[in-house]
Amino acid sequence: MIVATTENLPGHRVVETLGHVFGVVVRSRGLGGNIAAGLRSLAGGEIKEYTALVEDTRRQAIDRLIANATLMGANAIVMMRFDSGSIGQTMNEVVAYGTAVRIEPTGDS
Question: Which contacts of 29-33 are long-range, i.e. CB under 8 A and separated by 24 or more positions?
Fold first, then answer.
C-alpha cells in the first residue's frame, strides 16, 4: 500500500477514488509514565516518554488507516495527514486520514 501526503504519485495514475479513509487511536500514559514525564519537564528538554507515546500512536493510526483502505479495495492513500488533540488531561488522540484510491502504473518512470 502506497501512502503519500501528495495528491499525485509519480509513475502512477488514479483510476478510481474510493473516498475518505481514516485511522484513529486514543491513548493514555500510565501514572508512572506521567510522573516520570512530569519530573523530566522540570529540567526542560525533550520529554522522551511523551515522544515515544506520540510516535507509537501515529504508527498505530497509520496501520488502522491502511487496514481501512484495504477493506475499501484501495491500493494507495493520497493526501494523508495527521490530526491530534487531547481528551481530558490524560488522553491523546491521533487521527491519520486521507483519500483511498486505486492506482495503476502509467509506464512512465
Answer: 29/53, 29/90
